[in-house]
Amino acid sequence: MNKKIIFTGGGSAGHVTVNLALIPYFIHEGWEVEYIGSKNGIEQELVSKLQEVRYRSIKTGKLRRYFDWNNVKDPFRVVQGIFQAYRIMQKSKPNVVFSKGGFVSVPVILGAKLKNIPVITHESDLTPGLANRISMPFVKKVCTTFPETEKHLSAKKAEYVGAIIRDELRHGDATKGYTYCNFIREKPVLLIMGGSMGSQKINKSVRKSLDELLTNFQIVHICGKGGVDPTIKKKGYVQFEYINEELPDMMHMADIVISRAGSNAIFEFLSLKKPMLLIPLSKEASRGDQILNAESFKKAGYCEVLQEEELSENSLTKAVNHLYKNREKYINKMETYQGQNAMSKVIQLIKNEAK
Ligand SMILES: CC(=O)N[C@H]1[C@@H](OP(=O)(O)OP(=O)(O)OC[C@H]2O[C@@H](n3ccc(=O)[nH]c3=O)[C@H](O)[C@@H]2O)O[C@H](CO)[C@@H](O)[C@@H]1O
């Protein structure tokens, strides 16, 4: 009988793209693949494109660090989600569960634990997220992207594997990117990606400096859902809410990037050797994981960092021009980065645990 794996993870694309990188391998190897996510999350949108994967939705609650009336209702949703996940495990009988974290993964992991199904999780960031911290006692292994993360985890469970990069990102075609954006070859391209959901702060700041930035660069701006400003029509400036199939072409076309410091995005840029200006999400809006991700990259010489509090018209254009001028320095440093062959390590761990 074929082996079966259930993937989970969601809330933002950063909790889905690692799964999207792994899923084709298991399908190719003849495994049955299912995915548990929320009903209307980004994971549903991204995974529903994969015909071979059965998608099942459960109720889930968000784990917020701030006051919200939903905080009262959400624990009940999580409990309902645990029962739903338990029933799925009972019917589906997977050999193993792989979780990429995010709040939808907590009920799935608990449901799997109740059925004694082994779970492996993956932590993208330098410090473990809340969902992964809650789930820690119930999982067999936690795969980490940064070596520094191991000190935040139990030594028995932590496995440093490195970053998992979707294979298609390596096969982008810059020429297609130029055609798609109607850009010319003679002027450098700046790609701006404020994380998978866009960043209002970065969008605002870029737009204030747009004319100045456009004197030196053509700009692809990924603005996030609802973030595109249709009133701005300028030569050499294109905006998107989110890019799917064309992202590899856009990444290959870019000379330099401005990005949030979400772990998947920055390792993708690193693997393609794109000099980065990172603007991490502030401590006010997060646990500060992106600040640590960015610090680690800066220490390695891969990027420039501009903290959100320092963001202004002047500081942004100055930092972008400085990055472009010194691009060779960052590229040379990135050339020394050795990928950890994370994909095969994770696949081996999953196979070892699959009952
Ligand atoms: C606000 C928030 O909570 N952010 C977290 C979230 O970020 P976020 O969801 O932004 O995740 P990442 O930056 O790590 O990854 C974004 C992923 O989306 C893809 N992408 C993005 C834009 C686009 O148009 N098309 C596309 O395919 C990127 O290629 C990448 O694979 O998860 C990350 C990984 O745990 C964390 O480090 C971030 O702190």
Automatic annotation (TrEMBL):
<feature type="binding site">
    <location>
        <position position="290"/>
    </location>
    <ligand>
        <name>UDP-N-acetyl-alpha-D-glucosamine</name>
    </ligand>
</feature>
<protein>
    <recommendedName>
        <fullName>UDP-N-acetylglucosamine--N-acetylmuramyl-(pentapeptide) pyrophosphoryl-undecaprenol N-acetylglucosamine transferase</fullName>
        <ecNumber>2.4.1.227</ecNumber>
    </recommendedName>
</protein>
<feature type="binding site">
    <location>
        <begin position="12"/>
        <end position="14"/>
    </location>
    <ligand>
        <name>UDP-N-acetyl-alpha-D-glucosamine</name>
    </ligand>
</feature>
<keyword id="KW-0131">Cell cycle</keyword>
<keyword id="KW-0573">Peptidoglycan synthesis</keyword>
<dbReference type="Pfam" id="PF04101">
    <property type="entry name" value="Glyco_tran_28_C"/>
</dbReference>
<comment type="similarity">
    <text>Belongs to the glycosyltransferase 28 family. MurG subfamily.</text>
</comment>
<dbReference type="InterPro" id="IPR006009">
    <property type="entry name" value="GlcNAc_MurG"/>
</dbReference>
<dbReference type="GO" id="GO:0005886">
    <property type="term" value="C:plasma membrane"/>
</dbReference>
<dbReference type="GO" id="GO:0008360">
    <property type="term" value="P:regulation of cell shape"/>
</dbReference>
<feature type="binding site">
    <location>
        <position position="166"/>
    </location>
    <ligand>
        <name>UDP-N-acetyl-alpha-D-glucosamine</name>
    </ligand>
</feature>
<dbReference type="GO" id="GO:0005975">
    <property type="term" value="P:carbohydrate metabolic process"/>
</dbReference>
<keyword id="KW-0472">Membrane</keyword>
<dbReference type="InterPro" id="IPR004276">
    <property type="entry name" value="GlycoTrans_28_N"/>
</dbReference>
<dbReference type="Pfam" id="PF03033">
    <property type="entry name" value="Glyco_transf_28"/>
</dbReference>
<dbReference type="GO" id="GO:0051301">
    <property type="term" value="P:cell division"/>
</dbReference>
<keyword id="KW-0132">Cell division</keyword>
<keyword id="KW-0808">Transferase</keyword>
<dbReference type="GO" id="GO:0009252">
    <property type="term" value="P:peptidoglycan biosynthetic process"/>
</dbReference>
<comment type="pathway">
    <text>Cell wall biogenesis; peptidoglycan biosynthesis.</text>
</comment>
<feature type="domain" description="Glycosyltransferase family 28 N-terminal">
    <location>
        <begin position="5"/>
        <end position="143"/>
    </location>
</feature>
<keyword id="KW-0961">Cell wall biogenesis/degradation</keyword>
<keyword id="KW-0133">Cell shape</keyword>
<keyword id="KW-0328">Glycosyltransferase</keyword>
<feature type="binding site">
    <location>
        <position position="196"/>
    </location>
    <ligand>
        <name>UDP-N-acetyl-alpha-D-glucosamine</name>
    </ligand>
</feature>
<feature type="domain" description="Glycosyl transferase family 28 C-terminal">
    <location>
        <begin position="189"/>
        <end position="346"/>
    </location>
</feature>
<keyword id="KW-1003">Cell membrane</keyword>
<dbReference type="InterPro" id="IPR007235">
    <property type="entry name" value="Glyco_trans_28_C"/>
</dbReference>
<dbReference type="GO" id="GO:0050511">
    <property type="term" value="F:undecaprenyldiphospho-muramoylpentapeptide beta-N-acetylglucosaminyltransferase activity"/>
</dbReference>
<dbReference type="GO" id="GO:0071555">
    <property type="term" value="P:cell wall organization"/>
</dbReference>
<comment type="function">
    <text>Cell wall formation. Catalyzes the transfer of a GlcNAc subunit on undecaprenyl-pyrophosphoryl-MurNAc-pentapeptide (lipid intermediate I) to form undecaprenyl-pyrophosphoryl-MurNAc-(pentapeptide)GlcNAc (lipid intermediate II).</text>
</comment>
